[in-house]
Amino acid sequence: MENQALSIMKPQLERIESYPQVAEKLDQHIRETEGQIGRLDSLLEGLGESNSTIKDMALSLGGTMAAMGHTVAGDEILKNSFANFAFENFEIAAYNSLLVIADLAGETRAEGPLRQNLSEEEGMARWLQANLAGVTRQFAELKSVGEEAKV
After folding, report:
1. Closest by CA position to 90, among listed 68, 121, 112
2. CA distance 31 to 114
3. Residue 88: which of 140, 41, 125, 35 has the closest Cα?
4. Domains within the chain, CATH numbers bracketed
5. From residue 131, how far is each of 8, 17, 110 by CA, in Å?
6. pTM to 2 decimals?
7. Which three-class secondary structure state does DSSP give residue 47?
8. pLDDT in tens, 61-74
9. Which residues lie closer than 8 Å to 10 by C-beta, 6 or more apart?
10. Residues 31-44: pLDDT tens digits?
């Protein structure tokens, strides 16, 4: 899931021109996501497990394709914002579920890292929700004056 998130966010970040506040937040969340992957890898290693390379590759490819699909849209920044908000909420649900599973399994050492990841995802979701109106206004303003509302 986190590798898929990276494959969605990194192409978006490379294309952003007119929305520096979005670029800054995406860059920050990419770094958070890389930390989340490290925490998850450590948890899996501690359990004697590993991530599924094939599943990671498939999800990353899917994420890349989803991110690239929006590039042809004239309102790419809006479509990316909607998709990012939806994906953050997907991740929030997944971490809440993982916390229950860890509790049921008695894996108390998993709680801290999972809660940290959850907190970061909740923070990103809050930021996206709080900033959607501003991004939409900026998009509309750029379009209304005939400027290309580049991502």
Report:
1. 121
2. 16
3. 125
4. 2-144 (1.20.1260.10)
5. 19, 17, 32
6. 0.84
7. coil
8. 444 445 555 444 57
9. 30
10. 999 999 999 999 99
